[in-house]
Amino acid sequence: MQALTILLDGISYGMVLFIISVGLTVTMGLMRVVNLAHGAFAMIGGYIATVLVLQAGVPFLLSALIAAVVAGALGGLAELTVYRPLYRKGELPQVLLTIGLCFVVIAGLTLFVGATPLPAIVPASLDRMVDIGFRSYPAYRLFLIVVGAVLAFIVWLIVERSLFGARLRAAVDDPQMARAVGMNVNRMFTVTFIGGCALAGFGGAIGAGVLPLEPFYALRYLVYFLIVVAVGGMGSFRGSLVAALAIGIVDTAGRYIVPQFGGFLLYVLVFGLLLWRPNGLLPPKSVA
Amino acid sequence: MTNQQQATTQQQILAPAAMSRPFSPAMLWHLLPWVIALIFFFVGDGYHSLGTNILVMILFALSLDLALGYAGIITLGHAAFFGAGAYAAGIFAIHFNADPVLGLLAATAIAGLLGLLTGMLILHTRGETLLMLTLAIAAIFYEIANHARWLTGGDDGLSGIRVTPVFGLFRFDLWGKTAFLYALSVLFIWFIIAALVVRSPFGRSLDGIRQNTKRMRAIGTPVWWRLVAMYSLSAAMAGSAGALTAQSTRLVGLSTLELLTSGIVAVMLVLGGERRLYGAFIGAAIYVVVQDFAGSISPFIWMFVIGFLLIIIVLFFEGGLMGIIDSVVAKLKGKADASGQTGKRT
Amino acid sequence: MKRRLIASAAAALITLSTAAYADVVKFGIIAPFSGPFAVWGKQFKDSVEAFQKLNGKSVNGHEIQIIWRDEGAGDASKSRQFAEELILREKVNVLGGFALTPDALAVSEVISESKTPTIILNAATSIVTRKSPYFLRVSMTVAQYVSPLGGWAVQNGIKSIYTMVSDYAPGIDAQDEFLSGFEKAGGKVLGKDRVPLNVTDFAPYMERALQSKADGLFIFAPAGAPSVAMVREFERRGLKAAGMKLLGTGEMQEIFLPSFGDSILGAISSTHYTESNQRPENIAFRKALTEVAGKDAVPDMASIAVWDALGLVYETVKALGPKFTGDQAIDFMKSKTINSPRGPISWDPKERDIIQNVYIREVKKVDGKLINVDLATYEKVRDPWKDNHPDAK
């Protein structure tokens, strides 16, 4: 029974990582941009949702959706202005510019919202225990699992079952060929970037109960998002789901069973895994 | 290869030519940073610790320039070696010998060795995977230092470091004058080594590896070994920088191993301009001074300033501040001397 | 670069010439304004403005000037560098600040050599004041404000405990001090967890605590994101519903209570300052603070520390004039007794560490606002660590 609890904890944690990171796998896999500012979009989403709930009394889910829309719009704006010139540059300028973006967002939020961590906006209906047969379990965690699963399904539908998805996969696998056959890869970049940032913003908002919001959010959890992408295989959607869940479960189980080594375990495993499979668990064809 | 890259390569081939010429007035420019540092030594009372901090960060940024700039090893984990050097120097001083030069050498050797070992493991990968591996290494080092509280002091930091006079003659005074000169000397030695290395055939081959690994491999260059060699050298240098900070402040904290430290040193390098050696000088100096100034005027804004500066530099001034200086110099030269030379470049 | 140098040389000249007017008393404060601990700096600054609004910016015509330095990333070497700069360049008369213990330890050599009176505004490890005779603490030590809690818990029906502390020196100090009081009073310890500082998801730890079925859970985490996440998970995982009492310290400061929501109701904490206490000093303090920092401004440990530090500096200038040596200032300050908004405070003349009341409080909702309400007061609490380790250096 205890194992089942750990599993549920791990999956719900992993789902938050998945929702936030799946957009990052697109930027890093499709556009080949080392985007260290991805966490900043999740943070912006979380801040917007929190302000909406607390100041304007907007319902939780609605404010998370608005946060997603705003984060997506800001993402689109950023893609058109600062990211586009980056595609032609090396990894270092990409790292630097996106760190710069992070700094600006962190400084801005500290200035306008303050340096204290934000209050939780999980509504009372979720912030309670429900009976799941063998024990009572936090409703919020179940909610995260359900939302994560629904979003994973939607992403799967778009990527694997739509024309847009087919093009997207083609562009990930062979960008030059995609261009050659006349696809508007630039527009595809913009659209997917908006989608990725919207998901991140949504994840930042609904996941705030697991990853608390504060100005350093963008850098504090960045490593986790990057690990999801690298372990899953850059540009692989299935990979990022598998990786996010695996990381959630391993991290949780590690802390539960051997709390004194909890911090180590994840990094050592990631290190070993990347040495063994440098392209991640499920890399897309272009790099496999 | 883009035109820009080709242009860079050509300039780089020109640069050493300018260096190996017999004396020319343009070569006097090379004295500038050292002269400024010495003037600062005499007039900078109260700012010597700041100065030492700048020198340490220059050395750290220079080490990153070797790995990242010249060898093209994309890393976000260079703090691992900086921190390893700092802890090694601190622990060496506390448990073995308080002589600063011995401590510096020990720290340098240990950091270099760690660079060699980790480099051998990770340098067959590239791009984002390599980036993640360097991140993971720094994170593992951080966790080790955090857990080994009996050795490192954990979160409270390592304190109680004692340093005997340099060569038994020059005491580390309270206001950091000795530390400043000591750091300056170490930086000078490393700068000479770095300048020699990047101009050697070995350094040139790394230039080739960075630009076209496959071709270099095809002509029989042992790519992996060359990368490992440069990475270890860079790690040793970062370790020296860490040792300097440990000895000049007599403190080592976990922040020396943080992701943010790795990020900041990369920021300094790009701010100044990579693959230029002097870029590290300008970038580190400006970053530390801006942080210090902005910090004393309105502490809330320095992150803003640095963030914007980074975005603008990356978008509009590819070569960093040194790149701007170069193009201004080139324009002035173009007017005065049609043949044009890149004397100020390294 | 040359121009920059000339500019800074000119700036240095200007500083020197202003320093010649000796009736400016300079108080240099090194604190984090950026980075993960930025909230400290903001609280310091608001409180200073409030103090100067209430008490004026000068004493007997001598201007009291505050000079800020941002030690942002938790990098202790910066702390030392700023201390040197403030002492040598700015010629500060009094130094202060230090959010974290390493920041304070880093300046001990410098202030000893320059004989600069230095007021610790937070750094809470007991040993710090023994590192230099010019240190004086106005904040607290971890051992001090935790010490009464263990005994209180047993007396109030919490017979068994689980502890969960962040894995760093203050966390371990807090755990040890709490458990020593708890076990002395006959309580039973069912488990001890140390949580790494970078942990964000406390679910597995809370699950372990829940399974222990202890009467209470004692926590200690850096105030901010970690403590907020910890307490939220306590509620969400049903530990509270299972009847477990939450015991803590700085986590339950009033400023953080809105971050938890109503789930925090009933939590017990022990600290040296109850933000909503009705002493006239405290009412005046909070009024001044809301006037400068907005109606929602809430004071915390940082605000109260810098408030009392300024009180000390003003008193010193009043008694000794604008010119005093480090020894005179420290001797004067440590002999004072101040009616602080937190209650009466004084200093142990030998250790230069603060002696103050410690309050056991419970979070309650009063007029729709979450506040701490005192349950018990322990008067004139000394730092127990110092008494238990008379010779530690």
Structural summary, described in words:
The complex is a heterotrimer of chains A (288), B (346) and C (393). Helices cover 72% and strands 2% of the residues of chain A. By secondary structure, chain A is mostly helical. Chain A has one domain (2-276): ABC transporter involved in vitamin B12 uptake, BtuC (Orthogonal Bundle), CATH 1.10.3470. The model of chain A has no long low-confidence stretch (mean pLDDT 88). By secondary structure, chain B is mainly α. Chain B has 15 helices and no strands. Chain B starts with a helix and ends in a 10-residue tail after the last helix. Chain C has two domains: 2-140 and 278-351, 3-Layer(aba) Sandwich (Rossmann fold); 143-271 and 358-388, Rossmann fold (3-Layer(aba) Sandwich). Helix content of chain C is 43%, strand content 24%. Chain C contains 13 helices and 15 strands. Chain C has helices at 2-20, 38-55, 76-88, 101-114, 142-155, 169-184, 203-212, 225-236, 257-260, 280-293, 301-320, 326-334, 384-388; strands spanning 24-31, 58-59, 62-70, 94-97, 118-120, 135-137, 160-166, 188-195, 216-220, 245-248, 268-271, 337-340, 343-348, 353-366, 369-381. The model of chain C is unreliable at 13-21 (pLDDT under 50). The A-B interface holds A 28, 34, 82, 85-86, 88-89, 91-93, 95-97, 99-104, 106-108, 110-111, 219, 222-223, 226-227, 229-230, 234, 263-264, 267-268, 270-271, 274-275, 278-280 and B 2, 68, 74, 76, 121-122, 124-125, 127-129, 131-133, 135-137, 139-140, 143, 146-147, 259-260, 263, 266-267, 270, 274, 300-301, 303-304, 306-311, 313-315, 318.
